[in-house]
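Below is how a single chain appears once it has passed through the pipeline. First comes the sequence as given, then the structure the pipeline wrote out for it. We keep one example in the README because the format questions we get most often are answered faster by looking than by reading.
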Amino acid sequence: MATWILSLSLPIVAYLILSGLDDLAVDLLWWWQTIFHPQNPPSPEDLAHTPENHIAIFVPLWHEHQVIEQMLSHNLATVQYASYMIFVGVYPNDQLTIDAVTRAANRLPNVRISFVPHPGPTCKADCLNWIYQQLLVEEETRGVRYETIITHDAEDMIHPHSLRWINYYRTIDYDFVQIPVLALKTPILAFTHGIYCDEFAETHTRDLTVRSGLRVFVPSAGVGTGYSRRALEALAEKDGNQIFIPGCLTEDYENGLRLHQLGFRQKFVPIMRGSDGTFVATREFFPQKFWNSVRQRTRWVTGIALQSWERNGWHGSWRTRYWFWRDRKGLIGGPLGMLTTLMYLAACILRPDWAQVPHFVQIMIAVNTALGIYRIAFRMGCVMRVYGGGMAVMAPLRISWSNWINGLATIRAVAYYLAARLQGQPLPWTKTTHEYPSRVALLGHAMRLGEILIQNRVVGNETIARAIARKPERQRLGEYLIQTGVINEEQLYEALSLQQQLPLVAPGPLSIPRKVARALPTHFMRDWKVIPLAIDDDGFHLCTPEPPSIALIAELERHIRLAIRFHLMPGSRFDVLAAEVLSGDPKQRPPLSLVAGA
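Resulting structure:
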């Protein structure tokens, strides 16, 4: 029985060897580029001497109200670039997202809301096209021309230096610049999200680097992609003002190909460390549940393999056709990955008599096994470089899990695509459920206080440098700047609000209810410097004059079952409020309301 199964598996093994040799060829090209043509990151001097062109960031949304405010606040507090604007696209029938973006736009000067004139969802490309129309209106109103347009999603953590890097490569005459995309690290037992860590670490180390080096078309990753204005205008002229093709589920992939066909220079920036020691890459969470991942990958397979095949066929140079093959071979490899897993399980359980297996079949299996071991080792090396040894050790186990997800996604994509074509129905924009990192995770990427004050034009570079040199070693920069009269308390807390991703509390028309004021013990409020403000459906709101520590959060979680929402309050106002709340007579207190800071 086992011998019969192995013999029948011969076509599968033959395809796996072909695919393995295909991957090995790309590996050899990557090794050749790495050894003989290594790429170095732009130096701080290069970046400092590159003039800042105006950059527009496009963020298309559909039902993203739970993450978009945090995304905008965090990225505006960390991005180390001055001349940029974020244009956020929303649909008229998505009121919760409209409200969230409006709140952000009211307090963040670099945010513009862009309305799609018809109900959604349509497709991401359609939303992006309408954002571009809003950009044109913005340019006419302000008299500014945005020379670079970058696409991002609602869950993206933009690296502080990525805009400067894109601007640098744009000035050396690249019209398409792709920054690497890496999944945020999750626990090693989170297998579904772990496969994104593995696959992006490998693909953005090897495949896209080789494509860029060979001057083959570089597909956009959808996020962290910088387009020159002239390139987008050429796309609009060629395709009836359609910068992004409506109806394409993977308009990012399509745009990389379209620009290559028009002769524009493309650059994929390899995974390299910036001056801060971190990899300059867009980070984000990907689906962490099995079926959510299958649904997302169904869209990827439908767009990249099936829609692209329908739109572009196999036209182009032999190099273009070769990369078409690599992008589309998952239509075969996806289902075969599941069969391969079952085949090896059957071989382990049934224990075939290898003496009865034909010699050439044994050779093929041995070759396939050797290629598989090398492939696993290469992937582990890529994962170790980005995420460390713990994640790398588990990468071999995640390959089988990945086989099932990719296999099911491919089967669903083919069935979904054929059904839509037979029924004459369009393929709608399938929404992926997005998550955004917690505040604690974001703090490692936050800008320094002095950098925010400079970016907000409160003080100059020389003032901050002088203050850092003169202040006592243990005194905080903000305290010293207030003490010397350089800034006032309001300016300090506006900067802290941006840095810490916490809203400010300012005087307003509401008062603190008696039962809320008594929600925490008096000694707790005094020792930890927190005052309850409100309890509502969004959680338990507290104000504090200091950024909350991990110890405070842990202590609060022992007393409070609700979600904890912190708000910053300037120290002088907090002292007045605390004196009245802790006096034991909460009948009359200064009225307060929660308003957005910064």
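Confidence is low (pLDDT under 50) at residues 585-598.

See the next section for the split statistics.
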